[in-house]
Predict the 3D structure of the following.
Amino acid sequence: MSSRLRASLRACMFTCLAATVWLAAAEPARAGGRHKVPDLRSAPSTTRGPTQGVMLVPLTIHVASNLETRAQTLHRVRVAVARANRALEPYGFRVVVHKVWIMPGGYDTVTRRRDHRRLAEYASIDGTVHVFMVDRLELGSRLSGDRGVRGMHWRYRGLRKRFANRQYVVVNGDAPATTLVHELGHLFGLEHAYAHSNLMCSCRRGPRQVFTLGQGMIMRREARKFFRANLRSGTR
Ligand SMILES: [Zn+2]
């Protein structure tokens, strides 16, 4: 594997993949099939981006799960956000659900590169972190073979201006409550750790995993960069 490819892939054994994906073709976004679900919304539209004290992390939740698993998915979102706040509040973050969108059919399975490209169409630059809840997420890389993963952080590094700075998080249907905050860690600049007590370890088990102070400082710094870039190139 080349050093460039190695640098662009954060393979997470059975738990996550953060990948750089080159977007070869764009498909138009279809907004008509999405409907807002207001009961999960816990933040007004003005609460986005970092503040001097508490840094708000507004999430746009895209529910791509099929109808049978949707209620369970919404429950999992609540649990995962609570878990994220428990881990991130010591470092001055506050994760809030800004919007919940029910996506049209056909997005519940993410196994191919083009599936990721299709999701990118919905990850607009709007000052929020886009999270896609799917039923099935697999790593389709020829390098590693097909295998299930529980979450991934995807970002675009291609040359197309319309996709500049686009990145998002995908969470699989069987992911534990820690997957969302683990992927937010990647989004905010963290690599994997190897201590079982650390949330950035693929080996993490149980409810007691945490971030270290050093990781918290990195996340604060990188989150500021993320939201600055997100707002600067926003189209809202
Ligand atoms: Zn990971």
Remarks:
- Residues 10, 12, 16, 182, 186, 192 surround zinc ion (CB under 6 Å).
